[in-house]
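User: Show me a protein chain along with its predicted structure.
Assistant: Here is one chain, sequence first, then structure tokens.
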Amino acid sequence: MSKMERIEPLLTAAQIRNRVTELAAQITKDYQDKEILLLGTLKGAYVFIADLSREIDRPMEIDFLKVSSYGDSTSPISQVAFDQRPSTELSDKHVLLVEDIVDTGHTLAYLRRFLESQNPASLKVCALLDKPSRREAKLPESEYIGFQIPDKFVVGYGLDYGQRYRNMPYVGELIFEEVNKW
């Protein structure tokens, strides 16, 4: 027996494009007299932040941070650590943290604590995907959510499994199947 991977589409490229446009319009309205610092989480949010930033009609800076919490597993771990901190001074900035997915909430709770300690003028969260059924950490509601999804392991549109599938223009459930090999 060996394992075979297949992907079952969950969100189409068109659905994602439409929702990114809607989120960007709301963000543009909410920050109408402010400059924004978009702070993306690497590597998963790189596609989302690129598309979102092109749709927001506000002056902005863009920076990235990188934390580790998944590795190459399909199950998140509760330990979170920085691999790369933002290079931009966050004090007195209107920070919009751009996340690929909020799952157990451990990563987002860790990032919120860190970012709040940097004294931003404001801090809000924009997540492409949200899995509220998996929440373990106590979190305030994210201000901007693309899609709430069921408890499935998803890839595509920046999300990966073992560094693969990030380049897919849609989000799909990664399914492992046992296969008899002759």
